[in-house]
Amino acid sequence: MKEALAEALKSFDVHETPIGAVIVKDGRIIARGCNLRNTSKSSLAHAEISAIEQACREVGDWRLEGCTMYVTLEPCPMCAGALVQSRIDRVVIGAMNPKAGCAGSIMNLLEDKRFNHQVRV
Length: 121
Prior knowledge:
4 helices, Cytidine Deaminase, domain 2, 4 strands, alpha+beta, globular
């Protein structure tokens, strides 16, 4: 989580909402991401999405089985959906998000049994 917080500081330093994420596989960080929506002028530039894209390139597959994401803020609906679609095994959350969180605050998309994959929280 310390590394995810370091990523969040990168967002803070450029006046973004400070959110950071790292993805770990076999005890090694394989991807990092920070929120850069305003800087990039893209609604898709969330920390989780950036980290997922980097991790997929690193492992050479869209499936991130055996990986864990550490993220400083509970994922929004888009990021929760991307986590389910990437088949990541587990997410560790630094703080819940009562305004937009989809890992238990508003709803829990990550562990919804109606999907073909669930992400442990």
